[in-house]
Amino acid sequence: xxxxxxxxxxxxxxxxxxxxxxxxxxxxxxxxxxxxxxxxxxxxxxxxxxxx
Length: 52
Description:
This protein is mainly alpha-helical. The protein has a domain at 28-52. Helix content is 94%, strand content 0%. It is built from one helix and no strands. The protein has one helix spanning 3-51. It is rod-shaped, with a radius of gyration of 22 Å.
C-alpha cells in the first residue's frame, strides 16, 4: 500500500474511534436527560395522587 494510503487509513480509523466515542457520550447525555424527565413526571404524579 502507498504510504499516503496508509496514513489516510490510519486517520480514518482514528476519526472513526473518535466519532464512536462522541456518539456514546451523546447517547449517555440523552439517556440521562430522559431519565431525569421521567423522574420528574413520576414525582409530580405521585405528589398529586397522594395529596388527595
